[in-house]
Structure formats: structure tokens, C-alpha cells
Amino acid sequence: MAKVAVVGVVGRTNAGKSTLVNALVGEKVSIVSPVEQTTRNTIRGIVSDTRGQLVLLDTPGLHKAVGDLGRLMNRMARRSAAGTDITCVVFDASDEPQLEDVGWMQRVAKEKPEKVLFVLNKADKAPFYEKMFHDAWEEALSLAPPSEEEKSFAGPLWVKSISTTEGGAKDVLDFLFDFAEEGELLFDEDTVTDYPRKLAIADSIREKFLAKMHQEIPHELGIIVKSIDESASQEKPVWKITVDVLVNRPSQKPIVIGKAAQTIKYVRKLAEREVSEMFGVKAHIELWVRVEPGWMKNQRILSDMGYMGDLV
Questions:
Q1: Which CATH superfamily is domain 197-304 in?
Q2: How far apart are CA 54 and CA 47, in angstroms?
Q3: Which of 118, 175, 183, 197 is deepest in the core (most CB within 10 A)?
């Protein structure tokens, strides 16, 4: 019988959750960027090996919410941690514990889930604040000590990770499989994600914009895949993908397009290559930049982006 578990991968924004999920899956299933709040949906990454199967829910990072979109992201992060078999809290231990880190610790201390893994990520960095995170946990636990009924609460298991290097997340994977219990596989063994393709394509495009523009307007940039027209060819399927790129203000539009359209051409080229490899097709992407004031508060637009549907 295989070992199976659903794992909620949570933590503050930019702690390295998406990089860890990609490392565990062995393929890119989640957007990675040095810019905070890059993961906006809950993404399922699926790990299958001889031991069984882990379904990883890569969640938006918890942060100080601003506006409807920020509140939705935080709600998805919290709800994705609930109802899972294992809670995996990822900390950026190259930095001192932040308010959001302490918040996750306090939640674990209060709820005392049976299976919790605390991952001290970025263990290759110096300084590495391992002791400060252990001290922060002891303080959080002191505020919610176990009752008589909770005396069996063993607390979290701790593991260090370097999720950017090959094999750097092996210990995390081993601990998760140790926690997993026998059951039927939830997905086919060759499946690495069940993330909807429109959202995966949108994430790929947004990642390319973030890499190119850095901190210019990353959080005011929205991507909606409007249509995917499929046609057959002798070699491989051809997808014509039409995409709206949303900005809040007219002054942002030329930034997104770039001088002589350099930025948008760069993004289109890299996204077409990645989408083609991801889905085994030949992708042609049309990017249309549209000014949509206040799109992050528009319920219809947020729904089109996949933020208003099922949270897990």
C-alpha cells in the first residue's frame, strides 16, 4: 500500500515556498520570483515516488493585506492550511523571525495539529537564524500551553533546507513521507500538477514581467488568459493564446510595453518558450496591455483570474 498525504505549504511571503515545492516535485509548477507576493493562487504540486504520493498545496504568502486581492490571498493561505494531513511551515531563516512568522507559530501553538513540519529554508545563507526561530516557537507555545487533553502534542519537527540546490530539499521530502499514511493514490503517477492551464500560463507570463521590471509595478500587474485556440499540425498542436495585461494607471502602460516594445517582446518570447515546453505544444501568445483602474478591487476581474473560486 502506498503512503499518501495532502500537505499545506504555508509561510510568509517570499519565504521560498514556491522554490521548495518546485524542488520537491522536480519540475516547475509554481511561479518563482524575488518579488514578494508572487504566488496568488493555491497551486497543487504532486510528488510520486516508490514510497507513495504527496499532494503539495503551494499557497500565497501571508502578508499585511491591502485591498480585496490581498485579503483573498491571505484567506487562501489560511484555508489551505486547514483540512490537510500535514502542515509544512516554511521560514526564511536567513532573516530574523518576522511578524508573519510568529503568526504562523502562534497558530500552530493554538491549534496543535498532529503533524507539523517547520522548514528553516535558505540554510546556505549567512547569518542563519536557527536559534532565534526555535526561541520564537518556545515563546509562542508558552502563550498557548497544552491542556490535559493536548498533552500528546509533540510539537513540530524541524528540518533545514536549501531548496535552490539539487538534493537540498531531500530531508524535507523524507520527513513528509514519514508523516504520510497508507492510502490510495489521489492522482496518476505521471501527474505533477492539476493547476488549470489558463492560470499556469498567466503565472508564467507574470513571472517574466516581474523578472524584467523588478520593482516598478509588480503588484499592480494583472494577467488574464482570455482564450486558447487550439489547432492541429503535423508536428505538434498549436495554441494561439490571447492575454490581457492589466495595469491601474495610463502612466504604467508604456512601462509594461517598454521602449520600442522591448519589454513586451521579451516577455512574449520567454513565455512562449516556457508554455510550449510545459504543455508540449507550439505556443503563440498575443499580449494586450489594458488600463483597468482599480482592477484589484473588481470582483469580476478577480473571478476571471481564478481568485474567487475554490480556494483549495
A1: K homology (KH) domain (3.30.300.20)
A2: 5
A3: 118
Q: Which residues contact 278 (CB under 8 A, 6 or more apart)?
A: 28, 200, 204
- Three-state secondary-structure class, residue 223: strand
Burial of 278 (0-12, 13-18, 19+ CB in 10 A): middle
Residues 6+ apart with CB under 8 A from 217: 247, 248, 252, 255, 256
Cα separations in angstroms, 248 against 21, 143, 290, 298? 31, 43, 9, 12
* Residue 311 identity: L
Cell 526555535 belongs to which residue?
A: 134
Burial of residue 311, with CB atoms counted within 10 A of its CB: 0-12 exposed, 13-18 middle, 19 or more buried: middle
CA distance 7 to 25: 13
The grid coordinates listed for 141 are 507555545
Which CATH superfamily, name and number, covers 3-182?
Answer: P-loop containing nucleotide triphosphate hydrolases (3.40.50.300)
Query: What is the phi/psi pair of residue 247, to 5°?
Result: -125, 160
Domain extent listing, the chain = 3-182, 197-304
**What pLDDT score does 130 carry?**
97
Query: CA-to-CA distance for 263 and 242, rounded, in angstroms?
Result: 17
